[in-house]
Amino acid sequence: MKAAALLLAGSMALAACASDEPESGSGGGGGGGAAAEELKIGLAYDAIGRGDRSFNDSAFAGAEAAIAEFGGEYREVTPNEDGSDRAELLAQLAEQGYNPVIAVGFAYDEIIADVAADFPDTTFAQVDGSFELPDGTSKGDNVTGLIFAAEQGSFLAGVAAALKSETGRIGFVGGVDVPLIQTFQAGYEAGATTVNPNIAVDVQYISPAGDFSGFNDPARAQILAQGMYSGGADIVFQVAGGSGTGVFQAAAAAGARAIGVDSDQYQTVDDPALQAVIMTSMLKRVDNAVTAFVGSFVDGNVEGGTDLLYDLESDGVGLATTGGFIDDIQGEIDGYRQQIIDGDIEVPTTP
Asked: 3-state DSSP call for residue 239?
């Protein structure tokens, strides 16, 4: 059986960067179903590639951890600005013997199905992509979807925002107006209104569906967030990939707060002034999912043609606590978390 790409998120962020990055690394150790020297992990990033301080970086961290545990090597590739070379990059990795090949982001949906059919002996995984296409067609029995219950983690982000807001108005800035990012919006709005039915939630997307520039336009994100803060919002949740820095900059200028996404962005930003405004981050543990998937591959336990779901119960999503900004409301957040796990709260996936 085979499997395929993971990485998210958002998840999930797209926009574009260099074309093919030949950089690779290696590590010692090893063991499992595949000999350590045979393990060659191929990573095909979403737009921007490594250095997005978000889910591309998280995917890399997962691959790096797998190499440290099992030995082997990896290769990274990043699509060009318009993403037109995605299929070529996936095929290139497979042709060069990288296996498994992990694609990061929903933009690989139809592309990975075509490439997987051409390389039936390669195991593929897709972060933020199901093993099925929207019409229900399987991408192949050598493709595994690494899926995250982003709506659940975003619900908790909405709870935190509503509990911490002093103005009764909060905001959401999405990178691209597509169903995946709308899942974050839906959870965030549901969590906030569960705590405060009268809260106002301002929503803006940087770019429309089909235009992935919204994941790499921090200047535009800053303008949108500034408008929200000027309008009375005191906390803004950004789900915008590389554009998220603009939201943090707007929060710092307004003396307000922001919520990060995918990684613990309190720990990934360089500027202490920006770090100080990041109240929490909605975590999508792409790193854990990638490491676990590679481990299953090494052990020969990958079952292709299926999805692996990472949710609150499995700690696949959650909220970062670095900085201590939400320590005083942690008990309430934990209560809502348990209600979701128990099924007492069903979180919507559409706004």
From this structure: strand
Domain limits of the chain?
Answer: 5-149+287-310, 151-284+318-342
Q: How far apart (Å, rounded) are the C-alpha atoms in residues 254 and 232?
A: 10
Q: What would the DSSP string read from start to end of 132-170?
A: B-TTS-B--TTEEEEEE-HHHHHHHHHHHHHHH-SSSEE
pTM (predicted TM-score): 0.82
Structure tokens of 189?
């709005």
* Residue showing tokens 């709260």: 345
* Spatial distance between the Cα atoms of 341 and 174, rounded to a whole number of angstroms: 26
Q: Tell me if 185 sits within 8 A of 351, measured CB to CB.
A: yes
Q: What pLDDT digit, counting tens, does each position of 150-170 carry?
A: 999 999 999 999 999 999 999
Tell how far CA 145 is from the center of its chain: 13
SS (H, E, C) 19-69: CCCCCEEEECCCCCCCCHHHCEEEEECCCCCCCCCCHHHHHHHHHHHHHHH
The crossing angle, in degrees rounded to 10, of helices 179-195 and 150-164 is 40
Cβ(9)–Cβ(180) under 8 Å? yes
Let me know: does 52 contact 241? Beta carbons within 8 Å: yes
264-311 pLDDT, tens digit each = 999 989 899 999 999 999 999 999 999 999 999 999 999 899 999 999
| Coil/strand/helix, residue 199 | coil
**Right CATH number for 5-149+287-310 from 3.40.50.720, 3.90.950.20, 3.30.450.370, 3.40.50.2300?**
3.40.50.2300
From the number of C-beta atoms within 10 Å of its C-beta (0-12, 13-18, 19+), residue 200 rates as middle
**In sequence order, what E strands does 241-305 have?**
257-262, 278-284
CATH 3.30.43.10 assigned to domain 151-284+318-342? The reply is no
Per-residue buried b or exposed e for 30-66, using 16+ beta carbons within 10 Å of the residue's own CB: bebebebeebbbbbbbbbbbbebbbbbbbbbbbbbbb
Q: Which of 41, 75, 8 is nearest to 298 (CA)?
A: 41
Which helix H or strand E contains 197, and what residues bound it?
none
